[in-house]
């Protein structure tokens, strides 16, 4: 095959060197167009994975009737909002229910230097035995606390929580507002730290739920003052709780429990269900963004095509000279086509890297705001998108190459 | 309307033929016909046994590559390539590598007075650029040299040097030289000069 015996690269390099300024701009705009598509895809997928992972520890949630999304956002993602309480006696009913493997109350309302303080049981801190502290131990006395992986305190530190769930400062910073609402006389000592979960709970401080109740003057949930921490609670003494996490024994039990606790003043839900609804909304949004990014890519590639056609016109004499000194039309076609394809290829690779960098930046920003650890590097879907864009760009580059191929030599040589 | 009407023009092999005439008289068209860049509306362009008018475009490209060398008024080098690579450029039309011929290209450039074969063509003086263009045209030892105003953009001294090279090279290799020019000094050195007026041989 004659085409295989040709070497167009010296001319391609010469062409690219001759228009290096234009080439750099083309690579940049293609890279920006590609990066938008790559970033959207990688970020959306990472968001789904991270949010699903965060919900793994919450098979079934029971709360007061109201907004399902609000309950999930508060209990799972710690975007804490004031939500109504359910009767604490539910805890006893669940403890006695044979379909329940384990149940744990979750209580919010306090914070320390912007980190939410969550009251729960030691059993739930270890996710019913699945997690072991990365350092220290789990609390077994009322004045003890366990830290999430991202809380900047150390084992042995003491702290006094403040009432409230909203802070205007970044986690870890003191605020006058927090000082004004401190529970004076209440002190905790840090006794352990959990491993990183990649969820908002990494930023939480976990304390025995009994002390949350006591701090707010609601007793300790047990009949005796010195009762051991955790379940069983006393149905007559246990205060209301915002949410209860339930671990059913089996899938059938999960559905049965969800049905049973959707009445009588409670609402039961699988966080995964709420996520599916959210994903559907996210999916719609993603579709809009993907279409917008696709149109953006198309417009950019069209602009590159027009630029390539213009450049091919400006190079008409150069290509005519090649023909005059013996180049077959196929050689001129390859030089013109490869010149544009190389620019688009470089733009696609740069766009992939730029998209990855942007995704990492956004992931870091989101992790700072939500605590969700996003693995947002581009994957195969993004690589496929870039390959498709490169294919599209290379196909479009055929147009200026055909124009160069078909250009008459004699009139091309007369152009000054 | 016909741009050019030439009943017959015979150029003996190995001779030097000048084509003169006012601008727009059809000189360049005649040169392009002779080089197979254009095909006549009727008639033939015959070099030896080969009638260019009957060849396919691909065959004309091949014939030009093997048999003809072109020199242009403004050199038409690729300024981003070195002098050596400009000379070797036609080799890449049919071969992946021209490395084996680099030494021969350097020797030819030295013979023509270009001592910096690795220097980018765009950085050479105009006289050196035209020497590189001549080296590119003659490197494959073509039987026919076609030159379109090869001295027009050069000062008198450089033009004389370029004319010397073209004539000397054609004479030493027995190549046929067809030159379009307004330069009387160059035309004086041709074996024969044909004149065109409004597309007709005068």
The most extensive contact between chains is:
A-B, 29 and 36 residues
Write down the overall mean pLDDT of chain B: 91
What is the element string of chain B, with H for helices and E for strands? Answer: EHEEHEHHHEHEHEE
Number of strand elements of chain B: 8
Helix residue percentage of chain B: 25-40%
Mean pLDDT of chain A: 85
Describe this structure in words.
The complex is a heterodimer of chains A (416) and B (202). By secondary structure, chain A is an alpha+beta fold. Chain A has 2 domains: 9-52 and 277-414, no CATH class; 60-269, no CATH class. Chain A has 15 helices and 11 strands. Chain A has helices at 2-5, 9-18, 20-54, 68-75, 90-96, 122-125, 176-180, 209-215, 251-260, 271-314, 316-324, 329-370, 380-396, 398-406, 409-414; strands spanning 60-63, 100-112, 115-120, 135-136, 144-147, 158-159, 162-163, 188-193, 205-208, 243-248, 267-269. In chain A, strands 1, 2, 3, 4, 5, 6, 7, 8, 9, 10 and 11 form an 11-stranded mixed beta sheet that branches. In chain A, α2 crosses α12 and α3 runs antiparallel to α10 (271-314). Chain A is elongated and about 105 Å long. Chain B is α/β, with parallel strands linked by helices. Chain B is built from 7 helices and 8 strands; from the N terminus they run βαββαβαααβαβαββ. Chain B has helices at residues 27-34, 57-67, 83-88, 102-111, 126-138, 156-173, 184-187; strands at 16-20, 46-47, 50-51, 68-71, 144-148, 176-180, 192-197, 200-201. In chain B, β2 and β3 (50-51) form a beta hairpin. The longest helix of chain B has 18 residues, at 156-173. Chain B starts with 15 loop residues before the first strand and ends with a strand. The relative contact order of chain B is 0.22. The model of chain B has no long low-confidence stretch (mean pLDDT 91).
